[in-house]
Amino acid sequence: MSRVRTTPDATRPGHPAPYRLLADYRTLMGVPGFWRLVTIGMTSKLAASMTGLSLLLMVSSTRSYGTAGLAVSCATLGQGLTGPLRGRLIDRHPVRPVLLGCLAAHLTATAAVILTVRGGGGAALICSLAAAVGASAPPVAVMMRSVWHGVTTSTTLSTAMALDASLMGAALIVGPVLAGWLSLSFSPLLPYAAITVMTVTTVALVLANSAAVRAPSPSAGHWLGPLTSPPLRRLLAADALFVMAVTAVDVALPVYARQAHAAELTGSYLGSLAVGSVVGSFALGAATKRLPHRLKLPLLLGLFALGCAALALAARLSPTAVLMVCPVAGLVIGTLFAVLRTTCGDLAPAGQVTETMSWLSTLDMAGGAAGAAVFAHLADTTGSPTALALVPVLIVTAALIGATRARSR
Asked: Radius of gyration of the chain from Cα atoms?
């Protein structure tokens, strides 16, 4: 006797189509100009990820590492402090003159800092010009997040932000490797040639893309811009704590490797953490939108806290145990970046998406700087396992703030 089939046919009317992991990505690929947008996003992120190490290696070729590190800090500070202003200019003025003005100032400052370093200029001048390089960087990478918000639907936006997070993770892996190889194998100036080509190319592609070159917002709004929104301010605070936690793990792991006499595993720790983040953001990008919106951010932060707690426990066992846990601890990092960017765009006031995303990037830098400073000191003075054990406290705090934001939305 033949078996009676009781499973409903998913193709019949009234039954949803079966879920496929890559279906959302295939839908996203149907967005007009998808590959152009991906190219712009990846190229802009790759150029940005090369800048810090390229500046460090170029300045240290003629100056001390202390001066080189200070120059990198000045460039980061210049970029972070002026990010919201450049985003506001993009939102409130025509895109073409703003981008071309930023590009001209950026190329001029880059050439000036190179000539100053090679010509034996003083440390104060080098640091000032480095700050100008960061302050004038064309905000292409931030613009692309607002472009994705404009060209996608509610169905594909989460997937687009997951893809953006994956591209950022890949750029953070490839960019420093490429910058180091070009600088150390050929010339400290060669990475800047590559960065310049990529920066000019991305600006040209953006200006040729009708989705990016949109009309400016007709209303100036409050001088605080998007910061007038209490839910958005709480989201930015949660983002800063989350990035602080991620950076804390990044700085505590190398210290642990040195303290555990396993310095050769430092690259493997950070690499496996990054690979876990990239794989997780790609795999979970299509699934996170199926979570209840009010629970999405707190749930993912809770999973990240559990992963970091497992990492702290593994640090008390053996260096090999830490290596095994690193990919698991990093699994939701990329997805969290994507969710934060998606939610930030949802909370952005009309006509202020780019400025809102710029504030998010600025808080990323602030959280990263605080995490590096605080947890490097804690790992060195109290021991890296203790420092790692404190990371979940930051994440839980971010989750509580995120839950408050979700309830008040």
From this structure: 22
